[in-house]
Amino acid sequence: MGKDTIILAIESSCDETSAAVIKNGRHILSNIISSQIKDHKKFGGVVPEVASRKHIENISHVIDTALNEAELSFDDLDGIAVTYGPGLVGALLIGLTTAKALAYARKLSLIGVNHIEGHIYANFIQYKELEPPFVCLVASGGHSHIVNMLDYGKYEIMGMTRDDAAGEAFDKIARALGLGYPGGPLVDNIAKEGDPTAIDFPRAYLEEGSYDFSFSGLKSAVLNYLNSLKMKGIKPNIPDVAASFQQAVVDVLSDKLIAAAEEKNSPYAVLAGGVAANSKLREELRNKGAKKGIQVLYPDPILCTDNAAMIGSAGYYKLMRGEVSDMSLNAIPNLAL
Ligand code: KG4
Ligand code: ZN
């Protein structure tokens, strides 16, 4: 056995300040996540200025804690992986400049990681034997992609959202229902008490064979439904609206992911991103996958939402390919996969 490769990973693209120590790309030695949810809750969504400020306040402590929990020091590291996009530019810059300063001072390899790519790698931590190729749905607050992962670092985008991301739709509907922020887990929870067939909201499958998504029509349909009840002075049944909305999203996401996996003969349909934590999506996919002989994989909820461990895994495979960054690495808010 050769020497272990140890990576310190840093993630600050949105509202979680996170640092992780990852061994050989798949083993978590620590994964510290400092969530800013309580700081943004009163505004009903992430305020970029507040996010940057909170990242500055927290990042040193989060990194120290990650190293302490792993019982390692900077001398034990082989590289520093960091998210450089996509995300909020001010938020990204805090993690990135910290990573650059540490890599420079400690003469460590700097590895810039794409956040969307990172989400997929959460599955390599969850499933130690999993190898590409496979088809994956990455659905989060900022993106909804169906990706054919051909090899480490090689992706074929089969489809993506044409308007809102799936998580964004959950967050907007949660706000309209007065549930709070972030909306996904709240809708997921309250929908358990509702009837998913109560209201027949539209499903946008788009053109035949398309793996793209569109959630803006569904969002408008839910808002119109709520408005029309309000005009009549009728109170909506919140669990029913949440369950019916969630079912409409889950139907489209699961049908398209299974169809994409079938088209590519992928033995797995893999889920990633915050929306992958959705209990109905997981259940529906397990059922649809079982009928087609496709195994459905998803990480634990803590690895679905933003975390540095997934960035460390993606960073490890980049380091193994010799794909390191130099000090000119900059934050790219709209970085594509
Ligand atoms: O991956 P993530 O933490 O951040 C981004 O990269 O955007 O995803 C956050 C998104 C939010 O929109 C949140 O509402 C959604 O994931 N989410 C969920 C659930 N948990 C988080 N959506 C549906 N059901 C859930 N259980
Ligand atoms: Zn994310």
Structure report:
- This protein has two domains: 6-121 and 304-320, ATPase, nucleotide binding domain (Nucleotidyltransferase, domain 5), CATH 3.30.420.40; 133-299, ATPase, nucleotide binding domain (Nucleotidyltransferase, domain 5, 2-Layer Sandwich).
- α5 packs across α6 and α8 (238-263) packs parallel to α9.
- It is globular, with a radius of gyration of 20 Å.
- With 337 residues, the chain is an alpha/beta fold.
- It is built from eleven helices and ten strands.
- The protein binds 5'-O-[(R)-(carboxyoxy)(hydroxy)phosphoryl]adenosine and zinc ion (ZN).
- Zinc ion binds at residues 115, 119, 140, 273, 306.
Annotation keywords:
single chain, 337 residues, alpha/beta, Nucleotidyltransferase, domain 5, 2 domains, five-stranded mixed β-sheet, 10 strands, 19% strand, globular, binds 5'-O-[(R)-(carboxyoxy)(hydroxy)phosphoryl]adenosine, binds zinc ion
Summarize this structure briefly.
The chain has 337 residues and is an alpha/beta fold. The chain contains eleven helices and ten strands.
What do the pLDDT scores average to? 96
> Using DSSP, what is the number of strands?
10
| CATH architecture assignment of the largest domain | 2-Layer Sandwich
**What would CATH call the homologous superfamily of the largest domain?**
ATPase, nucleotide binding domain
Overall morphology: globular
Radius of gyration: 20 Å
Q: Which stretches of 5+ consecutive residues score pLDDT under 50?
A: none
Strand content range: 15-25%
Structural class: alpha/beta
Biggest sheet descriptor: 5 strands, mixed
First CA to last CA: what distance?
Answer: 33 Å
Order of helix and strand elements from N to C terminus: EEEHHEHEHEEEHHHHEHEHH
User: Can you list the strand order of the major beta sheet?
Assistant: 3-2-1-4-5
Instruction: Please give the CATH class of the largest domain.
Output: Alpha Beta
> Could you say what the CATH topology of the largest domain is called?
Nucleotidyltransferase, domain 5
Number of domains: 2
Query: Percent helix among the residues?
Result: 40-55%
Can you count the helices?
A: 11
**Ligands bound, unique:** 5'-O-[(R)-(carboxyoxy)(hydroxy)phosphoryl]adenosine, zinc ion
